[in-house]
Amino acid sequence: MFIPPLPTGPDHAHAAATRDRIICVCEALGLPIAKFEGPSSRLVFLGTGIDTDSMRVFVPEQRLAFVLGLLRDWRTKRSAKVRDILSLAGQLSFLTRVVRWGSPHIAQLFALGHAGRSLGAHVTLPQSLGISLQWWIDALTASPWSSLLAFVPFVHTAVVETDASKDGIGAFCPTSSHWFSHRLTGAELASAIKVAPWANWNSGRSRWL
Amino acid sequence: MGELELRAIAMAVATFAESLSGSALLCITDNAEADLAINRRSSKMPKIRHLINFIGIISHQHHIRVQSRLVKRDDNWRADLLSKHQVDAFLARTPGAALYATTPQSVPILP
Description:
- The structure holds two protein chains of two kinds.
- Chain A is of the alpha+beta class.
- Chain A is 36% helix and 19% strand.
- Chain A has six helices and nine strands; from the N terminus they run αβββαβααβαββββα.
- Chain B is mainly alpha-helical.
- Chain B has one domain (2-97).
- Chain B contains five helices and two strands, in the order αβααβαα.
- In chain B, α1 (2-20) packs across α2 (32-40) and α1 packs parallel to α3 (46-62).
- The two termini of chain B are 18 Å apart.
């Protein structure tokens, strides 16, 4: 049984009275109750924790420890069975209810799992998969929870304006009036400069000529 | 250019993350590639993907929801002036902002 968020805080007495009424009604109707928890403002429902005191959804401790152990094992693997890859993808997919930015980091697992091989086939794991797995480890270690507000439709509460020029980056946050103007370093410029194969102006072989 | 524009968003999110904690953040950009990458949370380009990953980690840690909106360059004039280091022009047209200059946080570069 769950105590919904109330503006005055959790009302345990009211929740307990409601619980007693529900049990009475079920007994009168002959309905068996297989499981009854609470009343509580912190419950695990269908594998996801909900806490209406802190207004969060969270990964339950047991599942968190299990998945982190699994991810650390996978970081050292060089190859794996398709079945295991899909199993890991399923575990992580479930956690995207809480870790909302996690979805893009499962795509590669699903792609490896659905490459047309049998479930028992071994697949060599690409190095790039390590980045995604490390992302998950970092995200789950940093904060295995999300605000309940993440589940309401997006209505922005803050704005940031950003732009880049050939040698700088600027950003202004009208919400707080903070701003910065950053001159790009050599490394940042080198990372961004990318000469397209057709843009070979020096040799006169540009596609546009 | 898309990478630089996305780097600008990543740098802004990292710099303002503390003060934006728990907010629903709308990133205004005049670059379609950066806008698409933010709203899709993915890209085929590794460097763009790397920046999205970075934004994702910062957003997750500070519980910031991020979306972007594409605007015309003229409508993004404040950030445009700052990116071209025309700080005086920016301050002249944005009264009160002089007090809020911030040192930007660095964003890792993909090796």
